[in-house]
Amino acid sequence: MALENGEKVEVALSEVAEAKPKKKDWVVLSLRVVAFLATASATIVMALNKQTKSFVVANVGTTPITATLAAKFNQTPAFVFFVVANANASLHNLVMIAMDVLGPQYDYKGLRLLFIAILDMMAMALASAGDGAATFMSELGKNGNSHARWDKICDKFQSYCNRSGAALVVSFIGFIILLIISVMSIIKLLKPNRINHASP
């Protein structure tokens, strides 16, 4: 009888221990959804960013000669990298969301937690690099560089620059959330109870 009571207490304690990580998993899942929406929005806005304008380049008598110029994201390698980095972060979070929602029967302990933490850090690092590169080019487009004699373009392509800035802001929000997710993944990996449960 005492053994049965001991087993009941042990089962109850194990159920309580398993219930706590589920709450934290819901927090991580919610953060992943927000990060996915942020990085996917940044990817779409930047990938569709284009503005075409006509400029008067000369006058022949009283007839103006115009030239039509287009500003596109793929004309700047930093913006292309930005799109690739955010698309990668979106895909990573989409896969992690699918694993959390569709695969609760799998046991994500031991090495699996390590792989998830590593992938989270890689996605965060790539997003950070893309944001940094795009921020540099955005600042150059807005203010130019008088020392290198690079002219600014945002005074001519305002809509293009505004959309790029919006994509950057949303992407930085996604990056911050990815940073939080990475920290939570590392904490989950290093928890003593997780390590003990992972060992057979």
UniProtKB/TrEMBL annotation:
Topology relative to the membrane: Multi-pass membrane protein
Highest taxon in the source lineage: Eukaryota
GO CC terms of this entry: plasma membrane
Keywords for the protein's UniProt record, in alphabetical order: Cell membrane, Membrane, Transmembrane, Transmembrane helix
Matching InterPro entries: CASP/CASPL, CASP_dom, CASPL
Compartment(s) of residence: Cell membrane
Major subcellular site: membrane
Domain Casparian strip membrane protein: 23-176
UniProt family annotation: Belongs to the Casparian strip membrane proteins (CASP) family.
PANTHER family named among the record's database cross-references: CASP-LIKE PROTEIN 1U1 (PTHR36488:SF8)
NCBIfam families: A_tha_TIGR01569
Protein name (record): CASP-like protein
Native species: Vigna radiata var. radiata (Mung bean)
Lineage: Eukaryota, Viridiplantae, Streptophyta, Embryophyta, Tracheophyta
